[in-house]
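step=encode ok
step=design start
structure_in=
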């Protein structure tokens, strides 16, 4: 990604990654549709309550892994292949132990967490069943995400896509078999997702060990490099904290929504599924831009970064406008795919109308953050995100909800986005991120693998 037109390279890299995330989101979309149509809105609310808790558990780990991805991309751009291999090994060792620890924590404290969130008593048993099964499979999800993150750092966004398509189709089949055929209930939905994660992970490992020149994953021969891990933590910890506090913010939002009852919880669960699907183009082009920036910084080609950002802003703005129009015109119909409950549909549609109107702001904020993360500058974006979330979004949602109901909760979201965009753009224009390069010229190893 260090030579050739910046726009076409970012586009070609982002599209397979976007398609992969589309199929990955199908895990959640299909789960939500089947739960809503075949089990009921109570089970739908239970699954929705589980989502932010799972997000909290995995966010810090995935954030630190982002630091490893940045190290991989910059060393790969500098042709320092020895450090690339060590970073890959270190990632797998770290994620293995982290996944075991988080699974144990989740299983031990989930009942207490429901109390903190104010989850209604009638949905807690289903929420616990769903969460426990999902948490038991975290190691498989981490494994697949680790392979994907490593390949993105190397500039390969296509390989994980093929296996993820297979896994997504398997998830659909298992959902239908377990819920519609066997009538196993909400726990089987989580089980289908865990099995599908496992299949995608195993297939990736088998394929990579046979075909890839840099990645030969033998779990008995993995080398943990303390220096790389410390550097990954230093870079990735701010992003990890950012993701974690965003997840905690979602948990707090779930608590605010819970005050309005099961219908609002079910509507919120459906709406954020649609919302996460619609937000994927902005997030994936931001990730592609991060890899582009990382490799070009590693190759000492800073002049290419501005053109990469300008292209990303243009393409994501066009996509965001199109997505907003779809939400305005067909949001009601989209809600009906998940449930037939009129009140749930009404509340969820209002969420889509309010939040989707500001997708252009959201996509621009993510694009600028992509430049900063690719440079290894993750601390300031973390503080901006935390301020926007906890000082603006949560208080605004809480206060406005008292005056205008659930619509006030949804309005807090774009309020935070607007501030986040302004703050991160001002910091980008300061140019301080250019001094955050991970590798030094003396570290470059030009030997081929």
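sequence_out=
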């Amino acid at each position: 990604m260090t030579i050739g037109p910046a726009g076409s390279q970012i586009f070609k890299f982002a599209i397979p990654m976007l398609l992969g995330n589309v199929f990955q989101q199908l895990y959640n979309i299909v789960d939500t549709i089947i739960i809503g149509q075949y089990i009921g809105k109570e089970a739908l609310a239970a699954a929705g309550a589980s989502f932010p808790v799972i997000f909290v558990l995995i966010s810090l780990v995935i954030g630190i892994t982002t630091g490893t991805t940045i190290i991989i991309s910059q060393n790969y751009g500098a042709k320092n292949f020895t450090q690339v291999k060590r970073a890959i090994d270190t990632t797998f060792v770290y994620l293995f132990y982290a996944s075991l620890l988080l699974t144990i924590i989740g299983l031990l404290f989930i009942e207490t967490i429901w109390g903190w969130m104010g989850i209604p008593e009638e949905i807690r048993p289903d929420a616990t069943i769903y969460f426990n099964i999902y948490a038991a499979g975290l190691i498989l999800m981490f494994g697949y995400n680790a392979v994907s993150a490593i390949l993105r750092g190397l500039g390969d966004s296509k390989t994980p896509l093929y296996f993820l398509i297979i896994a997504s189709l398997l998830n659909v089949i298992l959902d239908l078999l377990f819920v519609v055929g066997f009538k196993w209930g909400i726990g089987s939905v989580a089980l289908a997702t865990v099995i599908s994660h496992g299949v995608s992970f195993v297939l990736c490992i088998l394929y990579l060990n046979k075909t890839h020149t840099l990645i030969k994953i033998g779990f008995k021969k993995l080398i943990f490099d303390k220096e790389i891990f410390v550097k990954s933590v230093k870079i990735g910890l701010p992003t990890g904290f950012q993701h974690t506090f965003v997840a905690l913010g979602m948990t707090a939002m779930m608590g605010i929504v819970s005050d309005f009852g099961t219908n609002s919880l079910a509507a919120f669960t459906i709406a954020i599924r649609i919302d996460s699907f619609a937000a994927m183009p902005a997030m994936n082009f931001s990730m592609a831009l991060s890899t582009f920036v990382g490799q070009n910084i590693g190759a000492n080609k800073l002049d290419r970064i501005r053109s990469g950002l300008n292209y990303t802003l243009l393409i994501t703005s066009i996509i965001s406008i199109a997505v907003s129009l779809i939400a305005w015109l067909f949001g009601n119909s989209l809600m009906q795919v998940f449930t037939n409950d009129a009140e749930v549909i009404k509340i969820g549609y209002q969420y889509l109308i309010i939040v989707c109107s500001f997708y252009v702001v959201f996509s621009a904020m993510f694009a600028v953050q992509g430049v900063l993360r690719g440079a290894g500058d993750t601390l300031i974006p973390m503080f901006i995100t935390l301020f926007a979330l906890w000082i603006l979004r949560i208080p605004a949602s809480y206060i406005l909800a008292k005056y205008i109901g659930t619509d006030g909760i949804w309005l807090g979201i774009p309020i935070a986005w607007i501030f986040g965009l302004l703050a991160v753009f001002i910091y980008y224009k300061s140019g301080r991120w250019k001094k955050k390069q991970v590798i030094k010229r003396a570290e470059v190893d030009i030997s081929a693998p």
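step=design ok
step=annotate ok -> Residues 441-449 have pLDDT under 50 and may be disordered.
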